[in-house]
Automatic annotation (TrEMBL):
<dbReference type="InterPro" id="IPR002423">
    <property type="entry name" value="Cpn60/GroEL/TCP-1"/>
</dbReference>
<dbReference type="InterPro" id="IPR027413">
    <property type="entry name" value="GROEL-like_equatorial_sf"/>
</dbReference>
<comment type="similarity">
    <text>Belongs to the chaperonin (HSP60) family.</text>
</comment>
<dbReference type="GO" id="GO:0005524">
    <property type="term" value="F:ATP binding"/>
</dbReference>
<dbReference type="GO" id="GO:0042026">
    <property type="term" value="P:protein refolding"/>
</dbReference>
<keyword id="KW-0175">Coiled coil</keyword>
<dbReference type="GO" id="GO:0140662">
    <property type="term" value="F:ATP-dependent protein folding chaperone"/>
</dbReference>
<dbReference type="InterPro" id="IPR001844">
    <property type="entry name" value="Cpn60/GroEL"/>
</dbReference>
<protein>
    <submittedName>
        <fullName>Rubisco large subunit-binding protein subunit alpha chloroplastic</fullName>
    </submittedName>
</protein>
<dbReference type="InterPro" id="IPR027409">
    <property type="entry name" value="GroEL-like_apical_dom_sf"/>
</dbReference>
<feature type="coiled-coil region">
    <location>
        <begin position="355"/>
        <end position="382"/>
    </location>
</feature>
<keyword id="KW-0143">Chaperone</keyword>
<dbReference type="Pfam" id="PF00118">
    <property type="entry name" value="Cpn60_TCP1"/>
</dbReference>
<dbReference type="InterPro" id="IPR027410">
    <property type="entry name" value="TCP-1-like_intermed_sf"/>
</dbReference>
Amino acid sequence: MASANAISTASILPSSSKQLGLKNRRVSQFQKCGQKQAKNRFVVRANAKEIAFDQKSRSAMQAGIDKLADAVGLTLGPRGRNVVLDEFGAPKVVNDGVTIARAIELPNAMENAGASLIREVASKTNDSAGDGTTTASVLAREIIKLGLLSVTSGANPVSLKKGIEKTVQGLVDELENKARPIKGRDDIRAIASISAGNDESIGAMIADAVDKVGPDGIDRGYISPQFVTNPEKLIVEFENARVLVTDQKISAIKDIIPLLEKTTQLRAPLLIIAEDVTGEALATLVVNKLRGILNVAAIKAPGFGERRKALLQDIAILTGAEYQASDLGLLVENTDVDQLGIARKIKISKDSTTIIADAASKDELQARIAQLKKELSETDSVYDSEKLAERIAKLSGGVAVIKVGAATETELEDRKLRIEDAKNATFAAIEEGIVPGGTSSASCFDCQNAGVE
């Protein structure tokens, strides 16, 4: 008997002697169902697969790559053009490479397989950097085009792949050497404006937002990707969540079951910040999260040693939590709901965590900031000065909300995408520095200087 999954994904045709006797007709695969219904036998016919080799397959894939890259490439650079996407409802006018790539499906299966390669490049670039998807797509098209041409000319594909990987590493190292750090508000405004299609107003908004909130978050992401609540962006998003702050390692589920039961009754998400969450405890959290029983996520405590304890105390003060410190005898298994902090909004990626909270005690928060400023004025260590300045910025930083308005839905969507690109490009530049744009940095590389033969 055919499985339920097979039947739901294939066409079901009533069989007859006349149909089975048709000649000169290609039949892909048949699965006979033993079940009889109204004395009729049903046949499941799977979709046919077209197989192609060598030049035919490479040409078809290249054609699909060119079609997608041509559409995405229109938006490249400060003089990039818009693309109109005909979707449900009103047409969407966009200037965002990854949005265009995701919207295109080609009717030819082989061409669509090639297009999916560029689509994947754009998606991965968007996930890791948040911008530069058009540039990545155009570069990928040329690499694939020249690679296929070399293979057609007789080059060894394995050697070609090794050469590309070696070249990429050399160019990345050279780019990192050429990059210079951001120097103030003017650089931020320029980067955001260029990424938003030379929109100076968006650049000014992003610069104001960074000035207000600062560029830093907690340098820890989720322990398990199974905690993700937004699969499209691969992030965890909580609102009005409870926060457990401890320096202890949680491995036995019995230690946190009472707390989990109480937070479940409150119908509030729970963020666990601990030295680590492993073994039985992690497995139980993941299973219950996937089943929809718990709305929970866990991250490792940031920092190391004494700095970790200090950072956890900062988080506890910011959220109004009671820091469950093992050296004070405050164990996780004895923690009550009243000892948890409250966060208005939490956003967790694989690398970082952002917590937005209204401090339970403004006086305590200001006292903490004053204490850190005093320590900053007294220290002679450059490293300690940087870390203390980071902690002060995180505790005193505000929350920037950019409100986007437009006359039409189409204009609103386009403006939102531009602001999102500008924000992502700005934070990437703050983290890794900047180089001349428009791929001009890559075009003038000397391969020998990059260590590539």
